[in-house]
Amino acid sequence: MKRALIPFAIFIIMVGFLFKGLFLNPREVPSPLVGKPAPAFSLPRLDQAEKTFAPKDMLGQVWLFNVWASWCGACRDEHPILVALAKSGLVPVVGMDYKDTPLDAKQWLDERGNPYLLSAVDADGRVGIDYGVYGVPETYVIDKAGVIAYKQIGPVTVEALRNDILPLVKRLQAQ
Amino acid sequence: MRKLSLSGLVLAMALLLSVPAWAHEAQPLQSDVAVEAQVQRLSSQLRCLVCQNQTLADSHAELAQDLLQEIREMASRGMADQEIIDYLVARYGDFVRYKPPLNKTTSLLWLGPFALLIAGGLGLLVMLRRRQSMAPEAPLSAAEARKVSELLK
Prior knowledge:
Number of strands of chain B: 0
Oligomer: heterodimer
Largest sheet of chain B: none
Order of helices and strands of chain B: HHHHH
CATH topology of the largest domain in chain B: Helicase, Ruva Protein, domain 3
Number of strands of chain A: 7
Strand content of chain A: 15-25%
CATH architecture of the largest domain in chain B: Orthogonal Bundle
């Protein structure tokens, strides 16, 4: 009788793994960039195309780097959260407008509010490749030394902010 | 008729004129073929991160097209397959490779089937041993043998 329970036990263990699998998100691929310096770039700014932005401009502060686009549906969901975050003044958010047209991007920000300190324009998506961007929106937490501490794939949610991003930002700011 | 032969002559001359042009273009075409072959080879080993069960070669996602372009440029700069794969792994992680490398996180994936095979083999061995050591069944008694042969008639 006991022996007959062994296949059943194996079955239950498999069910356990499969059940857990139901709640994993296969789109969240862990980024190899976490713990590495944010890749350098120099891109024109959305508001003033003659000026450029480089990540080293932010050295010495903890900041969020949010990749967005006016064509991106999920960006619409996270945008009010970013606007509220910007208002709170807890952490500066730099945007990167990914494979977008400046006109659409500007109109998008005019309509929805601009939470960004500034937005860099990555028109051809080259810098996106350096950051391993594969699904906009994506958000990076970058520390005072310019090292990527965290990557949020998909929209920033209130839960992600409260549970992961803001505690991490506070810890990094205290360093 | 005369007009026709004239146009034929013009055509022949045009063809003759274009021969040196072909000779010049042959060189870059050669290397293009090599680059294209490399792009083909790599893109069938790399995963599209947008539509995750497709290779870069199969995918029509915009990111896949961008990555193909990036790979093509690296290939035409003469970078080796491994260098290009390393470049992409540094940005997107081991997940971009269809054949994951053997390391700490993938060891279960690589060794698991063999572990299961060995465990199953050992289990089978134990079971066979146990069966062997069981007492052999008692031979049939004369009455039982008679009954069997009657039933089989």
